[in-house]
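for the writeup, i need someone to sanity check this before i put it in the appendix. the sequnce is what the collaborator sent (i think, or maybe the updated version? ugh). structure was predicted straight from it, no edits. if anything looks off just tell me and ill rerun, i have time this weekend
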Amino acid sequence: MTFYSPHQQAWLAHYMTLEGKAEESLTKTMAGAKVDMNPHQIEAAMFALASPLSNGVILADEVGLGKTIEASLVLAQKWAERRRKLLLIAPATLRKQWSQELEEKFSLPSFIMEAKSFNEAKKAGIANPFDMESAFGQPAICICSYEFAARKSLELQRVPWDLVVMDEAHKLRNIYKNDGAKTAKVLDNALMGIKKVLLSATPLQNSMLELYGLVSVIDPYFFGDLPSFKARYGRQQLEQVELAMLRTRLSKVCNRTLRRQVQEEGGISFTRRYSMTEDYRPSAQEEQLYRQVSEYLQREDLLAIKSGARHLVTLVIRKILASSSHAIQGTLQTMIARLEQKLPLLDALEDYENFSDLQDEEGIGDEELIDPQALQAEIDLLKDFQGLASSISNNAKADALVRVLERAFEKTAELGGSRKAVIFTESVRTQTWLAEMLATQGYDGQIVMLNGSNSDSVSKQIYRDWLERHRGSSRVSGSKTADMKAALVEKFRDDATLMICTEAGAEGINLQFCSLLINYDLPWNPQRVEQRIGRVHRYGQKNDVVVVNFINKGNRADERVFELLSQKFQLFEGVFGASDEVLGSIESGVDIERRIHDIYQRCRSDAQIESEFNALQEELKEHLEAKNSDTRRSLFEHFDADVVRRLNLRRGKTTAELTAYQQKMLLLARMTLQGNGDFSESMDGFVWLGNKYNLNWQNAEIGEGEFFRPHDGLGAALIEQAKTAQLPPVALQFVYERSPEQGQWVDVKGQIGNSGLLKVIKVSIESEAQRREQLLLLATNHHGEQLHAETVERLLQLPLAQAPLVIPEPDVSALLDLQQTLLGDFLREVERDNETYYGEEVDKLERWSEDKRIALDLRIKQLDQEIKEARKASRQLTSLQEKMEAKRALKQLERERDNAMLHYYEEKKLIEQEEDRLLEEVEARLATETRVTELFAVTWQIVANECEAAA
């Protein structure tokens, strides 16, 4: 039987959970993630975690390179450091997707905070629902939308957040403007001084001042104030010296990788997307229904819809109307019932699953929306609409779907894809009706439906079968929503031909095995369209993707929407669809959706529609025709060759470190389970109590096993057990044994027959900014020779000849000098790193004070120039009145210039004092406290195994 001591287990468990610099501690976070990270993503996370003094960074990789994974890795690292006050702010439409990514890939708990959950917590007596642990009894990453965060800024401000991640952060870049960006300003005030990670593919779009705005959200002391930034960097032609300085400064706060660089390194191979369109013309009845409901929604005197919710309600009804006559019939029926009962109309719109996201964006609550007076006429009108809708038996768009399906399958097969299609609709009723209709067209038994609830009997049966099939495996997460999605996606992948999805249902799922996407209903929000296509066209997709859209030839507005999304936003063609320059430049897809809706509401003729869409395209022109200027490229992008070389090095280093860490995990399992586990099957897993465990998450899922990782499950339990064990003084007799595959440890082999003392000490050096930990491995043999730390580490991995013998406390005074030497080395290493961090802060603050001083000089020069021009202009005046007024204005300018000069040195002194104060804060944050803990002290002996002895 093979023996391992609790002391060996404790050493290994402590070693695997040491805290330190990102370079040292990120490996264990990656070892627990269900995602194969690319080198550029690890580089980005390293960049974000590099300095404990940093106030934050901008991660600005091009669209499609996985900024979500980069930020999730940073959040996972903070979580591993037990920093649990984590906030994620994202557009309302992305909240669920973020929550699922964090749970599925990183096993991080999250909670979506919105009006309903916030109000429920308040009613339950929770003082501040944003304080997750206090509010809900356990920590979780708090996720909310920008609009909600701004509305609840006072509560947000009261939480001492460890980190805030802000997705689609270009929403904040106009914060420098006095007349706009209210949400950005409110959030900036509420989260002042909190470390932030901003995610944006386009941190700079139209003006250098946007760059100032975004960086000031992270650190108000990175640049001087706005006037000094304008004076220094806001000029049309920036001098090369200033440009080089700005580039150097930005390299400390902004990290950007391009798709072409990642492709060259070999991390991701991007496939193309092809567009197919199918025209259709609605029947006379369909056109009549559309026209009548549209005219109803355009009326100014509607009693059923209060003005506060007019935009939201009419937008949603229009979406349902455009989806199918079946969908609008059901909505009208529910609306009539709600109005007759004098109940809120908002509840009648549940067919449109993105309603809650829009509601959050609009800031509308569940207020009473019905005027109790004079509703009968509208109710009768709605009943007429409903009667017309119910009389329509055929939908022209549905006929077009049946026509185009086979052609689309042929195109997909030609491109190497499988016979599978995902069909998107914006209505749950349309989804159900399409499934029934397609079942009669030869697809019976080949259809899966995915929506926000999946309460239909077929979905429930698929879910039950999936649970039975994966019972006891790590595939079952315990979250019904996540498991239902997993079951339906697996059914689609393995057995079905068609998956009909609503937007809400498809959030957070990956469908790389499918390469045909059909937009049965087309959203007006370009970002939402890109998210949809991103379900199939993402890295991991091996085939070119086909995207099918329908064009309503009976509705000019619908045609212009498709033209805008297709031709202007370029969503459906090319290597990566919509460019990040365009998608990132629009402040919000919701704004465009609102503008399109306004056109539908206002226009009553094709001529009006043409005019309004032309005006919208002109308005969007500067975004849609965005040019990646040389200045922008030089600011954010590094030379391709340098980046590719760095990414290649990172891939090799990460693979080696991850493999080494996983082997340590396997060794810990071998040590703690002793002879109870079966480790014979493979090099990356074992069997224990009938359960399979695997270090590779993909192999774990394929082989119906459990992912063995350090953060949860058996891995976390074994680590905790080993770290808390009692470790009395013992004698350990190691057996040297190495297989030919493992190679020889010559240094350890040279100690066979020797014995000596061994001591393991844990050192923790803690500051306000960071904790650094290290194990000091001290050992001597009986000749008094010191063993190198690497030799001691190898020694501790060997099995024992017998169970350890408890002995009296050994005299380890001979190890004191070695202990002081190693401790001194570690202290100096930490001090060197702290000097680097301090130097970076000094450099940043010197640049900040330089900005401020340059602004003072420029202000005086500017006033001198204005005085000179004013004098020149006054000499050309003719009337006495004009000359007197000019003289007064000149005197005012001279007084302003004289005051500026008078206070010049005082202002410089104030800048220097502020710089000194900030540096004192930095010094305080780096002040360290050292704690030394002895884990154990033992005597050791090493013998050869029988094979070695015979040799």
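Residues 117 and 206 are 38 Å apart (CA to CA). The chain is about 55% helix and 15% strand.
thx in advance!!
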